[in-house]
Design brief:
Elements: H1 15-31, H2 47-59, H3 70-82, H4 95-112, H5 118-127
Amino acid sequence: MGQTLPRREADPIPAQVETVYKRGLKWLSQNQNAEGAWEGGHYGSEPGVVGLCLMAFLAHGEDPNHGPYSQHIQKAVNFIIENQKESNGYIGTSMYSHGFATLALAECYGMFHDEKIAPALKKAVDLI
């Protein structure tokens, strides 16, 4: 006898949660600087923080090629790649930052298979 999974609600994300999520993405989009990072605090321009912000867009299903946040996603990816050391693949100023930046690149590559990400991702993973 097999198990049956409980039925999901028609809309698994409550409207209030979706509203808050959209508000957060709007804030991120309005506060991203021209280089692709976020100002504020000591760590806003760290590639790891940029990676976390990038993952917020991706988790909502945003696409780097289409949609209202495509340019923000592209700028964040470019920022991470541009802040990678050519010699060893290190991204940022700490392994903590490197880890989140690498995770964001992996997530983006896994979703969209953008070949400009592949070499940077490989170097970043090899360093770990």
